[in-house]
Structure formats: C-alpha cells, structure tokens
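Hi, here's the filled form for the chain we discussed.

Project: internal
Contact: R.S.
Residues: 120
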Amino acid sequence: MRVAELLDPAISPRKSAIERHHLFPKGYLKTIGITDIRDTNQIANYALVQWDDNVHISDSAPSDYYPKYEQRLARDAAAWDLTLKHHALPDGWHCKEYRQFLDERRKLLAEVIQAGYETL
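And the returned structure, exactly as it came back:
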C-alpha cells in the first residue's frame, strides 16, 4: 500500500497497515507484575509498527523480540543508529528495567520533539 492510499479516507483497508505497539507488551508487563493501565499505556511505551510485526511480537519480552528485528533491519550501522535516535530509543533499551526505560525514553522523546520544532 502506498502512502497516498494510507492517507486517503475513501480507502478503507481491512487491516490497519500501521498499529500502535507497546514496546514492552502488556502481556509481558503482566508477567513482571505491572498491570495498571496507567503504567502499561504510557506514551513512552508506544511505537508505530507494521501490523504483522505487532502480531509476531505479541507478548514477547523486548529482550527476546528486539534482537531479531535489529538483525533483520540494521544492515547499515550508521543508519540504524539514526533510526534509534529518531525513535528516541535509549541504548540497550530492550534490556532495561521498564521504569528506567520509561524515564530515559521520555527525556529522549522531549529532545526529538525539541529538535523537530527547531527545524520549523
């Protein structure tokens, strides 16, 4: 599907091409005792991914699913580092404790947003 088709309200795909994904999936968080919706649905815990990736990730721990995606997508180290920066993902995010990840990602999100405003 092309970008123009994604943005055209007249075209209604059967399945959304892009879905909101919990970087630390709710099912995984439940296994470590984090169940409150205010904790699981933090903005810093969201990313947009293709729906099929979201289905494959399911409730896997980030330390389980992320290395597979990094291996598949990180062909150019410099480009991958830039992708991580643009997505405000802290170094080693997938191995961090959840609350530490949220704290670090919030700061990085603020930096990315600030940099975006400065380019206007």
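Let me know if anything looks off before we file it.
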